[in-house]
Amino acid sequence: MDGWVKIHRQMSENDLWTCEPFSRGQAWVDMILLANHKPNFFYKRGVKVNVERGQLAWSELALSERWKWSRNKVRKFLKDLEKEHQIEQQKTNVTQVVTIKNYDKFQEKDTKQNTKRTSKGHQKDTNKNEKNEEENNISDFDKALKEFKKMRVKIHAPLTERAEKLIIDKLQKLAGDNEKKKIEILEQSIMNCWKGVFQLNTDNNKPQKDSVWIPPKLKVL
User: Fold this and answer.
1) Is residue 66 part of a domain?
2) Where are the alpha helices (DSSP H) in the chain?
3) Can you tell me the distance from the alpha carbon of 80 to that of 63, in angstroms, rounded to the nearest whole number?
4) Rounded to whole angstroms, how far apart are CA atoms 197 and 189?
5) 3-class secondary structure, 5
6) Alpha-carbon distance 36 to 129, whole Å?
7) Which residue range forms the structural domain that includes residue 83?
């Protein structure tokens, strides 16, 4: 069949779209909606993950929760798509990247037509939606790191690429693979405007506010 049916990417977050277990056809359309429309990247457990146009970095667990399927059903569905040469899968130790083959066949012409036909004001709204979509794809750790970098700029100590790598390495030493703890460490530095990252303050070693050192009483002989 020829022609287009335009579906906005925001449909993927509509309650009607996600309120019930997905059909196989709905899951396929959902993957197209979730795929990046342009290259991007994010950090997961301190590892940089590049996601190209037409790719989505969603694990089987994340997709199973979104589609309300079992992980085995998700795995079988992805394998079926792979056998039909609809997708390719690349698995790493931190995530899974799925490439939708012929992504431009589903999106490229529609994008060109939209660009030609939209007004200047509508184009601004589209750009805003695209920016919001990019932010939604960023992991919580990457968001925290982004805020840390903003704070460093505000205190006139912007991070170089080398310094950013050192910060990420330090976080790995302090928190290992505990992403939540890494975020808490970054937030601690952000709140205190610290240039570096340090072990989390605990109730036992956290300095008391307005504490004053009082010398011990001398023993009278």
Assistant:
1) yes
2) 15-18, 24-34, 60-67, 71-83, 103-117, 120-137, 140-154, 161-175, 179-192
3) 15
4) 6
5) coil
6) 13
7) 9-133
Q: pLDDT tens-digit profile of 60-78?
A: 998 999 999 999 999 999 9
Sheet holding 87-91, edge to edge: 55-56, 96-100, 87-91
Query: How many CA atoms lie less than 13 Å away from 44 in the CB half-sphere?
Result: 16
Backbone angles phi, psi at 74, to 5 degrees: -60, -45
- Alpha-carbon gap, residue 167 to 153, rounded angstroms: 15
From the list 97, 87, 81, the residue with the least C-alpha distance to 25 is 81
Average pLDDT, the chain: 81
Task: Let me know: does 185 contact 197? Beta carbons within 8 Å.
Answer: yes
Same domain, 128 and 156: no
Q: Give the pLDDT confidence of 152-165 residue by residue, as tens digits.
A: 988 888 888 888 89
Report yes or no on 220 lying in a domain: no
